[in-house]
Each structure stands twice: as structure tokens, then as C-alpha cells.
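seq as requested:
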Amino acid sequence: MGKIVVINPGTTSTKFGYFVDAQEEWTKEIKYNSDEIKKYNELFDQFDFRLNDILTVLKEKNMDKLDAVVSRGGLVGPVKSGAYVIDQALLDKLEHDPVLEHASNLGAKIAYNILEKYGKENAKSYIYDPVTVDEMIDVARITGLKEIQRKSIGHHLNMRAVAIKVAEDHDTTYEQSNIVVAHLGGGSTASAHRKGKIVDFVSDDEIMFSAERSGGLPLKELLPLMKDYSVKDMSKKLRNEAGLQSLLGTKDLMEIEERIKAGDHYAEQVVSALSLQIAKTIATLSTTLKGEVDYICLTGGMAHSDRVFNQVEAYINYVAPVKRYPGEFELIALAKGGERVINSKEKSNSFKG
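C-alpha cells:
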């Protein structure tokens, strides 16, 4: 019987839960307000209070001894998909030399410390499908500027979980399928899965805009604008104040849909443009798969929208059937990944710094 605690740290929350044989026993989300987080100058200054909040809950739940603790992986640099044993090399990388600062970098250290307290003898802690999973084919990395290569950084944990799930839902396996997945949210990313590997990836700054990201922009129009902004301010504009937020003054798609129902024609156009760009992104990745696509999946928060789903489906269903898996499946993905490892259905990896 596999008893596993899973952890998913976010910018202003920590989601975690307890699973037995990959079945949910309970989950919990601890939310933090922005002012509380801002008190800490460095990300890892948050470690003690985040860990202690989880430990308090585990104590209240009279937690059993665990077979594994599995966390969402942080920005460790390019790695293949799957599980990585948390060791000192991985901890040092995430704390002192991550690709980017993000709350997910805290997860490995939290998992490691929970295992020390609750782990069975010989149990291990893992990260699974970290943000920087990179299995892209080499030709997909090349851009028209020698100094810049395309990178694979995004919602790999949720997208790979959805790809595995759609295959299972249709009585086949991930390793036998070709699947395109688009994760639609505050930032949107998409991935092409060929026979069990993520062979191409579209990041949140390349094609489709999202709730708060600009997506790809015409460079001739962007360059003059850059004269008026520092790099930091331009990054904020493109990554936090763009997309639906820039076009309609809100990133809340439900609110926007209410405006459309009330007759806001421009809001209707913007959502139609959003759907078209999502479909273009999927089409791009379908090309990488040479049109041999078994399923297209939409996931993430904006996949709840019937309007967006129906519009995207109308654009792209000529390629393959379009399936919807709204929201995110990250906790169950961590639990199932850990379960596969402890039952020897999947081998874990060691991080090579």
C-alpha cells in the first residue's frame, strides 16, 4: 500500500495532500496574502513557515509513516520527464542556482524535510515532471537569431498528466499516442507528445496570449515601445499586465463572458482572438507531429469556458478530436508518479547538476 504526501507550492499558496495507492484521502490549500509573502526578501526565507504550516496539518491528521513524499519540481534546468530523487545536489541547485526564482523551487526542500519526519525506512522523496522538463527535438530549438534558442519551461506536470489521462480514457497508453495539450491560464503553454516524449513546446511568450501574458508580438511594433521601459518594467508589462488584462482591464474570463452576454462586442472579439491564437498554437505543434495527432486536449482554468472550448474546437478539430480537462491535476499527477516509482513501474532519476 503506497502512502504518499504530495506538495505543490505556488506564489501565494501551498497545495498538498495525502494519497493511498494513488487515491486521494484528503487535500488542503493554505493561502497567503501578498503582503505576508512580501515580508520575505528572499524566496527561501519562506521555507520555515511554509514547512511548519504543512507539518501542523500532518500532525492534526495523525499522519502514518510514508512510502514517499513527492513535490512539484522547481526550475532545475533542462531534464527529461519523470521522477528525480531529492538529494543534496538537487537541493543546492534549487536554492542557490535555479534557472528562475519561483515558489516551486521550495518544494524539494519541504518534501525532503517531511520525509525525514514521517518517512518509512528506505523511503525517498522526489520531485516529478519539473517546470523545466526538456525533451524537445533539436530542430525545434532553433530560432532566426543565433543568440536565442527556444526553451521548454512551463506547465509540464499538468500537461503530461492530461496526456497520460486522455490515452487511458481511450484504452491506449501514453507511449503509444501522439497528443497535443494546451494549458490555458494566467500564462498559457502547450506541448506536443510523441509516443511518450514531449518533443516540442510553445512557451507563454511565443504565440497565444493568455489572461495576463502578451504571447507573441510583432517585433517591428514592439521595439519602439521598449525605448520607454527598463527591462524589468517591460517584463512586468508583457508578463503581468498583458493579455486579457491589457485588452479588457481584467484577467477574469468569467467576468468577461458576463460582459459579452450584456452586449460588449469588443470583449466578444477579444475572446474570439484568444481562441484563434490557441488554435494556431495547437496547429503549430500538430505540424511537429506531421499531422499524426490522436488527441488534442485543453486544460487549465480557461478550459472551463464553453465559449473558448467550442471556438477552439471549431478551428482545430480537422486535425484530431478535441478533449477538455479543465482545471489542473497536479496533485494527483504527483501521487500517480510517486506510485509508479515505488511500485517499480517507473524508474526514478538522479539529478546531474
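The chain has two domains: 3-134+330-350, 156-326.
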